[in-house]
Amino acid sequence: SLPIGRVLEDPPGDHPVILCYKLNGEWLSGERGGPVRMIVPDAYGFKSVKWLKAVVLTNAPAANDTYAS
User: Fold this and answer.
1) How far is it, in rounded angstroms, from Cα 11 to Cα 22?
2) Alpha helix ranges (H) inside 3-47
3) Domain for residue 58, yes or no?
4) Would 21 be classed as within a structural domain?
5) What mean pLDDT comes out for the span 10-24?
6) Among residues 49, 46, 38, 45, which one has the least CA distance to residue 16?
7) Is 63 domain-assigned?
8) d(CA 22, CA 18)
9) Each residue's pLDDT tens digit, 23-67
10) Number of domains in the chain
11) Cα–Cα distance between 63 and 49 in angstroms, integer?
12) How far separated are the first and last CA of the chain, in Å rounded?
């Protein structure tokens, strides 16, 4: 999980969170993490998700992963 502020706003000096569905003009293959891949620069590797099929937005705070802060 990521805070909505990290997704919608780029903190000064940080790279943006990217939802990638194409690479060099071609649809992202499953081999490369498609149909959609989320890339979270400057975060633990598990925050960057391959094979993304859904995005859930909620206002309920949750620490639902091993290294959640």
Assistant:
1) 25
2) 4-8
3) no
4) yes
5) 86
6) 38
7) no
8) 11
9) 999 999 999 999 999 888 877 666 778 898 888 777 776 665 555
10) 1
11) 17
12) 10
